[in-house]
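Annotated sample (chain length 247).
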Amino acid sequence: MTEFRDQDLSGSRFERVYLRDVTFSSVLFQNVRMKGVDLVDVDISADLRNVVINGVDVAPLVEAELDRRMPERVKMRPDDPDGFREAWALLEQRWEETVARARTLPPAALHESVEGEWSFVQTLRHLGFATAAWIDRTVLGTASPWHPLDLPWDEAPGWDGIPWDREVQPPLDEVLALRRQRQSLVRDVMARLTPEQLAATVTRTEPGWPQLTDFPVKQCLRIVLNEEWHHRLFAERDLDVLASREQ
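Output written by the structure step:
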């Protein structure tokens, strides 16, 4: 088995190559051409844009099917303040249900990884980081809003002054206390949101992350909605596995 980690394979050419029982994680496929390829028993979880298979762009088809299966998903793409308030209220409600489900498992199970993914507690910690980054720092202008339990994504480059302890295992209630503070922060921003604020841009050049110029406030808020929506689905998926282990 060959392992490629932190490698740039741009411009590579693969011919008569067998990729069986292969795992791709955090991989960028851009400007890729595949010809004479057999895709059999393939499971892909990805952001799809301009993905053409046999002459058909499948990305819109996949998006439409996901929206059909999960009608609430459409609400995660709001354009006006009321839409953002509705989306956030819905996410808080769904997360309450997911946390209640997680509490039915032994506390140790909430620190277990499923197929190398974040544990349930780590997922909550990452959402805290996302809120701190995109709401507290970017929208509200707090230069360093971090808490020791905040958890950036695994492939992040790392920054001075931003916590990053993947191995610590705090109790669920400790993480939830921080999470409730961050949820309240977002709720307050959504409650005061006006069309003018939603149409504005922000610039943050202080040390840390993110650093950006003239970035739309609407996009900051949508990033948080997207993080909350998708990570809850991931958490529910993994809770299914953890629950089956307890049976």
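Annotation: The first strand starts at residue 52 and ends at 53.
Annotation: Helices lie at 59-69, 81-102, 120-137, 172-192, 195-198, 217-246.
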